[in-house]
Amino acid sequence: MDKSLEIIRRMKNRTLKNHLITYLIVIVFYVVIQVLINTGNLSSLLTGLLVPICVYVIAAISLNLVVGISGELSLGHAGFMCIGAYTSAFFSNAVGDGLPEIPRFILAILIGAVCAGLFGVLIGIPVLRLKGDYLAIVTLAFGEIIKNLVNVVYMGIDSNGLHISTTTAMDLHMEPGGKQIIKGALGISGTPRNSSFTAGIILILITLFIVQNLISSRSGRAIMACRDNRIAAESIGIPVTRFKLLAFAVSAAMAGVAGVLYSHNLATLNTKKFDYNTSILVLVFVVLGGIGNIRGSMIAAVILTALPEMLRFLSNYRMLIYAIVLIVMMLFNWAPAARTWRERMREKLPFKKKAAAGKEEA
């Protein structure tokens, strides 16, 4: 009994250490970038990419919860980002200067996360009974439906309340002092630009805290049990659909947060960025960083977002180099020989040897 408790204690300490290392990587990245900015060693092009990098890192972490931890293939992540972006931008424009900047932005983040999470629950209830290609097709359709629905919505606000139309702006019938916020395919303009690199890093740390603690919790272990063997999980009384829905809803809410950060970084917001290509791009970050590997997804998102812009001086060759990097990362992560080599390298590390010795003693 004492040996079992000791093993559990060691596992908890190892998990805590891994979490702290991940937080430390994010903080060190932030400090290094701030030093480069303050010393003038970071180009204006890369400075402008800092917030988008944070957006993609949050999106990659959240999608890894579904693809890597829950074991489901979702292609509708851009749809949840779109919901978070539009609901938060609408709130910020409707409130205007009625609230101070920081409380308004915090409320916008909460509204975007809650709305995206609610849609995640509504979509997940019928969809998560599917699996494999069928789930991917339905989530892909959801993302496209959301984008096209938003494109036909006109919404404004005046003293009489909210006005909605799906035809033209003239059908809103607002008073002369009313304010039109959503302008159909033109999107939303005039959203306060509250997003910053510092805000992005804080949101990344919060996302990591939520996702990593969920994975390490009893619910997280149940989610992984459902992923590994659905029939065995059901046989011991685990409600598979409920736990998969929990992962899906949390992932959708975090994607909504990424959408909030994105929408508050632009003067004009439209649905062009929330298409099928964005969902595939985030999935590429997850796959290349390692399915189920939160740290790897973060690194892949940073490298693959910054790389095309860093190679812009190569003109037509930059996308060729980008493709080569994708292939190399894929081979390094998934080729059997590369995986065997990585395992051998891990075994040679000093702290791995100590851990192995501790297991033998136990």
Structural class: mainly alpha
Global outline: globular
Count of distinct strands: 5
Helix content: over 70%
List keywords for this structure.
two-stranded antiparallel ribbon, 362 residues, disordered C terminus, globular, 5 strands, 3-stranded antiparallel sheet, mainly alpha
Structure description:
This protein is mainly alpha-helical and 362 residues long. It has a domain of 237 residues. The protein has 15 helices and five strands. The strands form two sheets. Strands 2-1-3 form a three-stranded antiparallel β-sheet, with helices on one face. A two-stranded antiparallel ribbon has the order 4-5. Strand 1 and strand 2 form a beta hairpin. Helix 3 runs parallel beside helix 7, helix 3 packs across helix 11 and helix 7 runs antiparallel to helix 10. It is globular and about 75 Å long.
Summarize the structure.
The chain has 362 residues and is mostly helical.
List the helices and strands and how they pair.
Blueprint: H1 2-38, H2 44-48, H3 50-70, H4 77-95, H5 101-127, H6 133-151, E1 154-158, E2 161-165, E3 179-183, E4 188-189, H7 197-216, H8 218-228, H9 230-235, H10 240-263, E5 268-269, H11 276-289, H12 294-310, H13 318-334, H14 336-348, H15 350-361
Antiparallel strand pairs: 1-2, 1-3, 4-5
